[in-house]
Amino acid sequence: MWLLYAVGSALFAGLTSILAKCGIRKTDSTVATAIRTIIVLIFAWVMVFVVGSQGTIASIPARSLVFLGLSGLATGASWLCYFYALQRGPIDKVVPIDKSSTVMTILLAALLLGESVTLTRGIGVVLIAAGTFLMIEKRGGVQKEENGWMLAAFGSAIFAALTSILGKVGITGVESNLGTALRTGVVLIMAWVMVFVQGKQGQVKAVPKNELGFICLSGLATGASWLCYYKALQLGPASLVAPIDKLSILVTVLFSYIVFHERLSRKALTGLAVLVAGTLVMLV
Predict the structure, then answer these.
(1) How far apart are CA 118 and CA 123, in angstroms?
(2) Are 256 and 91 spatial neighbours (Cβ–Cβ below 8 Å)?
(3) Which three-class secondary structure state does DSSP give residue 118?
(4) Alpha-carbon Rg of the chain, whole angstroms?
(5) How far is the CA of 141 from the CAs of 67, 151, 265, in angstroms?
(6) Residue 189 buriedness (CB in 10 A; 0-12 / 13-18 / 19+)
(7) What 3-state DSSP class applies to 143?
(8) Quick check: 272 and 131 in contact, CB under 8 A?
């Protein structure tokens, strides 16, 4: 069952990237992140009341609350980096870098959670890393602007890996929808603090209506992805759930071609094939 949830997470995560890209053409990425987090939080709490887990809040262990909070902070940092990179860089390059968090997650799961790294999984890690490298090809000289979004994309990957590990620990013994809702609250606070720290609160009213619609839709897609992801994380091993979730890159690449007409070179296509092959090898 965790496999179906992981696949659902990948599908909705792929849609999130495309919808978010459409919503930050003129809107500041930090402002967009703060707005969409409101949608995610509402979506998450609706699901909590639908499944009736709100009454178990008082019984959540303090340790779980701490790790869910840390996971929320890591998610907030990852989002801020990711949408900054997504606004300034090509989606078919930003997403592969972000998905390199898979390798970091697997290594951290082995070191911190004691999850085994078999020969097959080791081969999968190498293939995923190689595929990501091939997809991040440079177009001519690397300018400072390009370095900026690339560094942000790698920052997103690092924090995303920490999110998975901290979330795995925090979700233990907690109903997954409730855990998702609690950590989203932390993300919301962090996102809006960043908006006010950077003095961008005045830009909220100036967000174009069409972009606001895409931002809200991306929030709904994110909420659905999170609910699936943390249910899968609760039921299955983090070292397998994370790679499946990262297959969302297939959805992203497909829609980036349809919507933004971003085409992959032969080298990048080879990298995508190697990355997907590495993920599938890990599931054997």
Answers:
(1) 9
(2) yes
(3) coil
(4) 18
(5) 42, 16, 17
(6) middle
(7) coil
(8) yes
Q: How many CB atoms lie within 10 A of CB 207?
A: 19
Q: For residue 154, what are the contacts with CB-CB under 8 A and spacing of at least 6?
A: 97, 100
Enumerate residues 6+ apart whose C-beta is below 8 A from 192.
Answer: 34, 37
If residue 240 lies in a helix (H) or strand (E), which one and from where to where? Answer: helix 238-245
Decide: residue 185, CB within 10 A, 0-12 exposed, 13-18 middle, 19+ buried: middle
pTM for this predicted structure: 0.75
Which pLDDT score, from 0 to 100, does residue 146 have?
58
* Token pair 């390009």 in the structure block, residue: 146
Domain total of the chain? 1
Q: What is the pLDDT of residue 248?
A: 84
| Token code pair at residue 75 | 């998610």
For 173-198, the DSSP string reads TS-HHHHHHHHHHHHHHHHHHHHHHT
For 198, the domain range is: 2-282
CA 127 centroid distance within chain:
21
* Angstrom distance (rounded) from CA 211 to CA 27: 7
**Average pLDDT, consecutive stretches of 10 residues, N- to C-terminus, the chain (284 residues):** 89 88 89 92 90 90 92 92 87 81 83 82 87 72 62 92 88 85 92 94 92 94 86 82 80 81 83 86 74
Q: CB-based contacts of 143: which residues, under 8 Å, 6+ apart?
A: none
- Give the length of the chain: 284
- What lies within 8 Å, CB to CB, of 269 at 6+ separation is none
Report the SS3 class of residue 264: coil
Distance, CA of 83 to CA of 23 (rounded, Å) = 10
